Amino acid sequence: MKIVILGGGTGLSNILTGLKNEYGRTISRLTAIVTVTDSGGSSGILRKVYDIPAVGDLRNCLISLSKIDNYVKKFMQYRFSEGKLTGHPLGNLFLVALIETEGNILKAIKKASKILNIVGEVIPSSFEKVELVAKFEDGSIIEGEEAITNYGLLSKSKIKSLKIKPENARVPKEALKRILEADLILFGPGSLYTSILASVLLKKIKEAIEKSKALKVFIVNLLTQPGETDNFSASDHLKEFMRISGISKIDIAILNKQKPSSKTIKKILEENKKLVDSDVDNIKKMGVKVYLGNLINEKDVYFKHHPLKLKNLLFKIVKEQNILV
């Protein structure tokens, strides 16, 4: 089975962790197509200084798929705490060095994949330093991933439209080929506008998704995101994804049905977030099949999908939908 996952942030790297042990067994090809629009933190600084696509999400995906020892993963994620390097993870600097020596980001990722001994493959969604541009309901036009989220938080205005600049940015041929050959395409989980949609908005990627005969699955987030998806239900996430991306068909939506502990709920509310309401009937009315599962991981510092529970549900879907494995 050939799987392609599009997105970014911790959501994408988390799901890769759950799938990588199936590589070479039930999964013959595992490809992460990663957004490169991050304009904040270390990635934002490095993309501005070196005029390169953002590397932070690429780093996380490479480490998630890596078979190197945990101590190596730990120091690759180490963030410097003093001087001009404060806030920069070693892995980001490693990727910048490879881009500079190899000549472009795709060659750098291929070299990093060998050094880190990864299973599957990580492909940037674009060779170029692309930018997200959002128009809000109040008429404001905001450019840059970090600025978009911050404006949403401060203004309480909703995103009306979203585009990527330049829309015709160069996309690796490998990414398009993988999408067209995929048996299963996954979207999410992750920030709806600034992670999931950020890759899909590239014109050639969207066209390849539309042409692909793969089963298309949308993984709905567990929580709403302040400044982006406040008060969104599961169907709101899916409708907004399809409206802005222009993708005409999603076959399956994955929703969580597990209730977290009262302690976790209290923490969620303190962060001005909410559990996403699993309004199954509204999604079914869209012609999309729904799969529910107990998908929560409460053991980590962050509340997120449990990678193995999510993997198990995906393989149940694969079996029931008669996808070749």
Number of helices: 14
List the uncertain runs: none
Give the overall average pLDDT.
92
Number of strands: 12
General description of the model:
It is built from 14 helices and twelve strands. By secondary structure, the protein is an alpha/beta fold. The chain has one domain: 3-Layer(aba) Sandwich (Rossmann fold). The strands form three sheets. Strands 3-2-1-7-8-9-10 form a seven-stranded parallel β-sheet, with helices on both faces. It is globular, with a radius of gyration of 19 Å. The mean pLDDT is 92.
Write a brief caption for the model.
With 325 residues, the chain is an alpha/beta fold. The protein has helices at 9-19, 41-50, 56-65, 70-76, 90-102, 105-115, 145-155, 173-181, 192-200, 203-211, 234-245, 262-270, 280-284, 307-320; strands at residues 2-7, 29-34, 121-124, 131-136, 141-143, 159-165, 184-187, 215-219, 252-256, 289-293, 296-297, 304-305. The longest helix is centred in the C-terminal third of the chain and has 14 residues, at 307-320.
Give the helix/strand layout.
Elements: E1 2-7, H1 9-19, E2 29-34, H2 41-50, H3 56-65, H4 70-76, H5 90-102, H6 105-115, E3 121-124, E4 131-136, E5 141-143, H7 145-155, E6 159-165, H8 173-181, E7 184-187, H9 192-200, H10 203-211, E8 215-219, H11 234-245, E9 252-256, H12 262-270, H13 280-284, E10 289-293, E11 296-297, E12 304-305, H14 307-320
Helix pairs in contact: 1-3, 1-14, 5-6, 8-10, 9-11
Task: Throw out a few tags for this protein.
325 residues, alpha/beta, Rossmann fold, 7-stranded parallel sheet, 14 helices
